[in-house]
Design a protein that fits this description.
The protein is of the alpha/beta class and about 450 residues long. It has three domains: about 230 residues, Rossmann fold; about 70 residues, no CATH class; about 90 residues, no CATH class. The chain has twelve helices and 17 strands. Strands 1, 2, 3, 4, 8, 10 and 11 form a seven-stranded mixed sheet that branches. Strand 1, helix 2 and strand 2 form a beta-alpha-beta unit. The N and C termini lie far apart (about 80 Å).
């Protein structure tokens, strides 16, 4: 005779199991005990928590457990073993907690023995995240997940690493890949003061929830971290289109025994609406939408500092050929999440009141390019901004009566356009700055 308790246990086990015969492989690394810089309190504990959580939802762990406090040689070996074991797997997951830095637009994970004194040391003493991505590519996996709780302060900032910036740079997700950052590109995440980082604590709790698809899961993680940190930290996701659905813990199997819980009958009104008709109301999601619009050069913020999200949304809708309603919807945010990450970025800024200007190039995000350019303004606000990306170029022309910032697809065309526009005031103009987003044409 099957008792009610045994039936309930069977239901829980059936619901928690991953898809039948789905092969899931995970490499979990946590680096805390740094030898040449200040150690971190929580990454090793975070890695242990994530290893236990992933094992419980069907992942086989490289090395059988979390890999802790790895030096460069051990990290290289772990990543190489990961690449071998994911061959033919359905899902590959890489999780890293510890120091991470961006140098010249590339992201590096920091082994515990790293001690660079110059930029040229980085490739030999740290692990490029692109190396991890290459181990996943070509493995035949349906889904690759890269999770980086590695956006803490740059520990080598005082050593004159010229190309090192705060936080991590945004990366383009290869086919079938989702990359989750503990915070926005270029920003710094919290290590945590109670045993775990806010990001990993939220991730471990969310992974155990039944029936959340991959995008719902990471969206819920973002909301939890945003609330816990009072809005100072907002996780970020970069994704290519994902084929099919993935659940850490699958929904109940149709027809499986269910506990005696009354469910409301589905009605047409209760069915999931078209996401393009579901307005975004959550402040965290609206903030993410604004940031993603900004990074695609659709500015929600007007020159006078007001937030005009409707205007920015309308411009994006016109570009992607959908009805220009100006409405911020779930569907629009989903489209932005799947769009290619834009880089490199270049920026020219100008402050007419103080006649100061600045220029930057070869940045992984628009926000980083703008910050760098304004940092060259000698303390002036430099509120006028021209930002461009990819193969675009910008030029700045000025005279004692007028000025012009223009962008074109070559630096010579940008220079010519800026001189022509500036010269409309009737005075001879000169070019004082010109560059392409990749740094060429200077």
């Amino acid at each position: 005779m099957v008792t009610p308790a045994a039936l309930a246990l069977a239901v829980i086990i059936a619901c928690a199991a991953p898809a039948a015969a789905e092969k899931r492989i995970a490499l979990v690394i946590g680096n805390s005990a740094y030898r040449s810089v200040t150690p971190l309190d929580n990454p090793a504990r975070d890695a242990v928590l994530m290893a236990e959580t992933l094992s419980a939802v069907g992942f086989a762990l490289v090395g059988g457990r979390a890999q802790l406090d790895l030096d460069k040689s051990a990290m290289d070996n772990a990543v190489q073993n990961f690449g071998r074991q994911v061959q033919g797997a359905d899902v590959a997951l890489f999780y890293y907690a510890g120091h991470g830095v961006q140098v010249a637009g590339a992201n590096y994970l920091v082994p515990v023995n790293a001690n660079p004194t110059r930029e040229a040391d980085v490739d030999f003493q740290m692990t490029d995240v692109n190396l991890v991505l290459r181990q996943m590519q070509g493995a035949g996996t349906r889904l690759n997940l890269v999770i980086l709780d590695a956006c803490r302060n740059n520990p080598f900032g005082a050593r004159g690493l010229r190309g090192a910036d705060g936080g991590l740079a945004q990366m383009r997700a290869p086919e079938g890949t989702l990359i989750s950052y503990a915070t926005q590109p270029g920003n710094v995440a919290q290590d945590g003061s109670d045993g775990h980082s806010p990001y990993t604590r939220a991730l471990a709790a969310t992974v155990k929830l039944q029936g959340l698809d991959i995008f719902q899961a990471f969206n819920q993680v973002g909301l939890a971290v945003k609330r816990e940190t009072g809005g100072t930290q907002q996780p970020w996701v970069s994704s290519s289109p994902i084929d099919g659905s993935f659940y850490f813990v699958a929904p109940p199997v149709q027809g499986a025994p269910q506990l005696a819980i009354a469910q409301p009958k589905a009605t047409p009104e209760s069915l999931r609406a078209d996401p393009d008709r579901v307005p975004l109301k959550d402040p965290a999601l609206l903030s993410e939408l604004s940031e993603r619009l900004y990074e695609h050069n659709f500015d929600p913020e007007t020159p006078d500092g007001r937030n005009d999200l409707t205007r920015a949304v309308t411009k994006l809708q016109e570009k992607i050929a959908i009805a220009p309603t100006g409405e911020a919807t779930e569907g629009l945010l989903m489209r932005l999440r799947s769009m290619d990450d834009l880089k490199p970025w270049g920026t020219i800024v100008y402050g007419p009141d103080g006649n100061k200007w600045g220029m930057s190039w070869n940045h992984a995000s628009r926000r980083a390019a703008v910050a760098d350019a304004r940092g060259n303004c000698g303390g002036a606000r430099c509120e006028v901004e021209l930002s461009f990306y990819g193969n675009r170029c910008g030029a700045f022309a000025i005279s004692d009566k007028s000025w012009s910032l223009m962008q074109r697809d070559t630096v010579q065309k940008a220079r010519d356009a800026a001189l022509d526009d500036c010269g409309k005031a009737g005075k001879a103009c000169r070019i004082i700055g010109a560059v392409c987003a990749d740094g060429s044409g200077r």
